Amino acid sequence: MHFSSTRPPQATYKAVLQHPISAHLSSTLSFITSRTLFPTLSLLIISVLCLPSFLVYLSDLILSESIYLFPHITTVYVIMAVNVTPSQQLSFENKPDMAVAADAKKPVEEKKVAATIKSFEADEPLLQENPNRFVLFPIKYHEIWQMYKKAEASFWTAEEIDLSKDLHDWNNRLNKDEQYFISHILAFFAASDGIVNENLVERFSGEVQIPEARCFYGFQIMMENIHSETYSLLIDTYIKEPSQRTYLFNAIDTIPCIRRKADWALKWITDKESTFAQRLVAFAAVEGIFFSGAFASIFWLRKRGLMPGLTFSNELISRDEGLHTDFACLLFSHLNNRPSKDLVQKIITDAVVIEKEFLTEALPCGLLGMNADLMKQYIEFVADRLLVALGNEKVYRATNPFDFMENISLGGKTNFFEKRVGDYQKAGVLNSANKLSGEANQTPSDAFALDEDF
Length: 454
Description:
Layout: H1 9-17, H2 26-34, H3 39-49, H4 52-64, H5 74-82, H6 98-101, H7 142-153, H8 166-172, H9 176-207, H10 211-238, H11 242-249, H12 251-254, H13 256-270, H14 276-290, H15 292-303, H16 308-333, H17 341-362, H18 372-389, H19 414-418, H20 429-437
Helix pairs in contact: 2-3, 4-5, 7-10, 7-16, 7-20, 9-10, 9-13, 10-16, 13-14, 13-17, 14-16, 14-17, 14-18, 15-16, 17-18
């Protein structure tokens, strides 16, 4: 290691003499250094005779300011400063880089992640603290950004739903069983959207660090609020008895079958042992499986020409939830530390068991005149498609038993989200996203598709 300085030797000696401990030695030091041919050796002898604190001071001074004066005895001072035994002495003349080794090693800086993230997930690019997270451009994750623009283009509000004809159907065309089923489904939806938002606010939005994903989560939170408002508005419109309204609005506490589904979702929010990837799969199951059977039951009413306001809002909400599920699968594909396929399968199949029980036993779809076995098959079909989207193999190998759900199933039909469902897609938003991402080959929303509705 080479040291150079323009500081004269006399300046170094003066710095030593100014130390309080060396005051009484100044005359002696002056005498020796002026009358000897070896001032460096003299200085070394004096330092050995001084107090330990003076040794530390002197060694620091020599190392930091005047090491060029002592090229042959630097090792001695390093030993004095760090208490190296004589047996550990190394020649710095032969190995000049070893001088650096005398300094304490700097600790390796750990990658910063949210407190809820496991240590072995710290290498996830999506989860690492991102100093550029406050600025969007330049876009780095174009697929994730495209998802956000797709959600933005599909914005709608509760005020746009026309419920004027629904009340007539509710009072005159639905029987008591059908009213009971629909009211409880709406109660489940009203509570579930709040749970999804709780997870987004409490966990995912703070854990994911890339701005493209945070944009999507921010928009999803807003849309979940609109969903919850819509379901609450539907209950408020159909149910006139105040006590019954209160019962439905508090479904998590008052209706056991809804409570069980809510508990399963809530445990993933509070679970401190699960990884981000596991929770991502769990909430993909909440939005992709827990909602699927209920969506199908409401679309069954549309097939019968009933409740146009309810069924249209259901179409918009199912589109949104399908996009949210697809987004979870997209983020999952960007993770390096994914759970095992067996664990992913277990999370999904557990959700299937709960959903089957909910719609065939606790709140049987037979109340609407739907076949319970076909409902089970449909739930399995949706679960298989979600498993494939997460990189797993199919478990149930079920086919879609409901032809009216062919273009609405939540398995990830992206072309469904390209359509202008009820003209509720903002013009030009997707085109700007495609231009920004440079995705010139992407299929436009009005392109011909073999599974288009005719």
